Amino acid sequence: MHVVIDIGNTTTKVGYFKDSELIDKKTVETKDVCYDDLFSTHTNAAIIASSGKLLTGIDNYMTDKNIPFHVLSYKTKLPIKIDYKTPETLGLDRIAGSVGATVLFPNKPSLIIDIGTAVTYDLVVNNCFKGGNISPGLKLRYLSLNEHTEKLPLVSAVDNQQLYGKSTVEAIENGVFNGLKYEIETTIKHFSEIYSGLNIIITGGDAHFFVNIIKTAIFVEPNLVLIGLNHILLYNV
User: Fold this and answer.
1) How far is 226 from 188, CA to CA, in rounded Å?
2) pLDDT in tens, 133-182
3) Contact, 156 vs 142, CB < 8 A?
4) In which element (H, E) is residue 55 found?
5) How far apart (Å, rounded) are the C-alpha atoms in residues 73 and 196?
6) Residues known to be catalytic
7) Does the pTM of the predicted model rise above 0.85?
């Protein structure tokens, strides 16, 4: 069994694969990770991607348990090409998500939209990461209005947005939410006009707000990064 670990600042996502099949997964608070809970006696390989520092001692733990492991970096041998001016600054989740897209749609162009703290738009064409865009996510947009104005309150995303608000809170809720919705839809439209047969893949922690209201054909895959990490692991073992 392969164990793939995506370490975030707040949460850590763990996927358990038999070859290419995801058979189980879990999400734990990063600060509460217990290594004995992540690995089983049947673990024969592991890969780790971290948005920050590695969990303290996790490499020593796997070495002591004789678990072959790989720590993802921009120097890792990948099953796709990276066409990016600064590969050392490219987020590991963006790399893994792009690889995951080629697993789901081999030899077809894909636009991966990861909606979380930030919103990333990544283009993969002919098994090559071509680049992408980054913009603030919902929480950052709401927080920015609150922190950079005198009187606007801090609100959060809710379902059932309206065209316009009847109060300041509703105006912020609708303005931020609909603004991001229009951004996503316009980005999809522009990319689809250039790349024929483009597959749109939606993922990320806030994707659930948008999957039923985006007015185009999309593919939703919440485990995209885990799928990509496992494919990278298979490529390196």
Assistant:
1) 24
2) 999 999 999 999 999 999 999 998 887 778 899 999 999 999 999 999 99
3) yes
4) none
5) 31
6) 93
7) yes
